[in-house]
Design brief:
The chain has 250 residues and is of the alpha+beta class. The chain has one domain (2-243): Phosphatase 2c, domain 1, CATH 3.60.40. Helices cover 28% and strands 29% of the residues. The protein contains 6 helices and 11 strands. Helix 1 (45-62) packs across helix 2 (68-86) and helix 5 (199-207) crosses helix 6. The longest helix has 19 residues, at 68-86.
């Protein structure tokens, strides 16, 4: 039987406030993790992120389980919560947030997202899957007009094509169920986290880490060593899949 061991981090870097939010919940044989990043260019971004996370967690109470349909339903609940808040205040009518949600049971995981908060799946210390951002820069990569290695530094990396809070454009990307194995690791994070780390750095830190907390701590040390006064907030959730009997990792 698989056991989910989780750690998280959320730190303000060079921004006036941390507009990120995160949450998690565990049930009988399943787990759920969510990260949101309020858009700083829109008033109320931090509130939108918190609303999204809270709405997902509340939705999970009435619909546990791991399926693409469940992921869609929870993200739709988050969308409705943000839109409802927008209607109560003219100042918040443009509030937006990215979001990434992962549901998992003992054998599979399903991810859904809007924006550029990401989900990574690692096996034997290597990235075997990650979500694709809803950004102009990622669209250029998809079209073969930009090298993936240059995405982080592209001037249009922060121009998002999808986010929670756009009333007529709710199009979450939802993965097919992914097989899980003991020894796998999962990562959910905002762009302030992954934007300062290349995949090999994520992998190197993972291979030497005994716990998800150690993994995230190593990555945060790397981020802080190169943080500037304008660096974005960093938020991440790391999950190790361990054997319930042996707690061993591949």
């Amino acid at each position: 039987m698989v056991r989910f061991v989780t750690a998280s981090v959320s730190e303000k870097q060079g921004r006036p406030e941390n507009q990120d939010a995160l949450g998690q919940v565990a049930g009988d044989g399943w787990g759920a993790w969510v990260v949101a990043d309020g858009l700083g260019g829109h008033h109320g971004g931090g509130e939108a992120a918190r609303l999204a996370v809270d709405a997902v967690l509340n939705s999970l109470k009435s619909r546990p389980g791991c399926s693409p349909e469940a992921v869609h339903a929870h993200l739709e609940a988050a969308q409705k919560a943000v839109l409802a808040r927008q209607r109560l205040s003219l100042e918040l009518r443009d509030m937006r947030t990215t979001v990434v949600l992962v549901l998992a049971d003992h054998t599979t995981a399903v991810a859904g997202h809007l924006g550029d908060s990401r989900f990574y799946h690692f096996r034997r210390g290597q990235v075997i899957f990650r979500t694709k951002d809803h950004s102009v820069a990622q669209a250029l990569v998809n079209a073969g007009e930009l090298s993936p290695a240059k995405l982080r530094d592209h001037e249009d990396r922060h121009r998002l094509l999808r986010a929670l809070g756009a009333e007529e454009d709710f199009r979450p990307a939802i993965s097919e169920p992914r097989e899980l194995m003991v020894g796998d690791a999962l990562l959910l994070c905002t762009d302030g986290f992954w934007g300062q780390l290349m995949d090999p750095e994520l992998e190197t830190a993972l291979r030497g880490a005994a716990t998800p907390q150690e993994w995230l701590s190593r990555l945060m040390l790397k981020i802080k060593s190169q943080t500037t006064s304008e660096a974005d907030n960093c938020t991440a959730i790391g999950i190790f899949l361990e054997d319930d009997q042996e707690s061993s990792r591949v």
